[in-house]
Amino acid sequence: MDERAALADLADRLPDAGDDCAVVDGQVITTDMLHERTDFPAGTTRYTAGWRAVAASLSDVAAMGANATAAVAAYGAPSFEPDELAAFVDGAQDVCHAVGAEYVGGDLDNHDEFTVATTAIGAAADPIRRSGASPGDAVCVTGTLGRSAAALELFDRGDTDRANGLFQFDPRVRAGVALRPHATAMMDSSDGLARSLHQLAEASGCGFAVEEPLPIDAQVDALAETEQERRELGVFFGEDFELVCTLPESDVPEARDAVPCPLQRIGTVTERGVTLDGETLPDRGYSH
Questions:
Q1: What is the C-alpha separation between 93 and 181, in angstroms, rounded?
Q2: pTM
Q3: pLDDT tens across 134-153, in order?
């Protein structure tokens, strides 16, 4: 049973689950766990690990259109090396400061594999859910797609400096806040664009007609050898942590002006089905 199946199995016990964060009295809260074997390739610095682990949870806060408040992390490792711990905390603090939040500590524990569990909280009186998209809305995405896929390729090639730089992504907290007056539905693209669209479609009871060109990252273009590989890395790979949102078509120009990063329209909300250039887009992406 993968993560999605497990969550579906728990749906009756956790009826409020399903968005990027839980909402409690105007606060949003989320937690994530990352492991060395699956999330931190060889060559990942502890600074990058601290940045990326905390950023993953901050990205969930961003997807709710909330202001990020604080983050904590539980750090497990076979041993506690002072330089590694310091670098991890530096990365965690720096990414929090980049979005106006505070890194306020956490826990340490011995573990046979380097593992990080992070929690982030934020505030939003009227958070954006996944369930508000309506036919006719525009579909937009922030930033570029495929950065993490390109980073893994660079890690494999031994180009760890460039790879670590790509892994230190910017959580779109300020973009999420700017989109809050406009977005009807939103989530982050940690599972990939294709799977995110399917998840939004399920939550909103709608479909999506998406068209190229998509905002594939230039690093993917430089590394992909075929168009099929380019699409695989940009559309299905995941771990990009961009925002995928829907909003009224008339709001798109104002939203673009308000968002402090590129915002590209990629399609339109439809009654049913998820397509790319008229062809069915498979429900495939990153799986835990």
A1: 29
A2: 0.94
A3: 999 999 999 999 999 999 99
